[in-house]
Amino acid sequence: MGTPWWQRWGPVWLVWLLILTGAYFGMGALLEQYQAPQSAHLSQEGRLVLKRSQGGHYWLKGEINGHSVWMLIDTGASSVSLSSQLADRLGLARGEEVRMNTANGVARAWETRLHTVALGDLQLTNVRAVIAENFGNENMVLIGMNVLGRLRVEIDDNTMTLSPRGSGEAG
């Protein structure tokens, strides 16, 4: 009788298991880096300059009602959206229930008001937002057109520049 199968093929399976495990964790780290927020800085003219992430998005660290949060700029979104978990941490009140059309279908949400939204030194007040059930990322705020429409938005190559409209309209 020959060598048992597990002695002959066991080391091969172990090597494949190690390769697949390494690939899994390596791809996770690569994907995280690919989607990682890039730098945002304030120019001398008072403009907020954002660099596009490797994932093709514009991210920045901002504030909602004085609390620091990651923000994703989304020109395809109608309004500011955030998860119910983040809304609870920020102490936001849920208003009227609404239905939202999202890329993943219809979602249940609640209207709310944000006292302040700060993107760098650009401050906006009394901003309408929705608290979305089953929001994709519970630690991120999606910045939509109800905020972007109050700012001057310029996109050139891989840079987005946000600045106040007219004379101090962002305040």
UniProtKB/TrEMBL annotation:
Record GO terms (molecular function): peptidase activity
One GO process term, biological-process aspect: proteolysis
UniProt KW Zinc keyword: no
Transmembrane segment boundaries: 12-31
Key words of the record: Hydrolase, Membrane, Protease, Transmembrane, Transmembrane helix
Gene3D superfamilies per UniProt: Acid Proteases
Record's protein name: TIGR02281 family clan AA aspartic protease
Organism whose genome encodes this protein: Chitinimonas lacunae
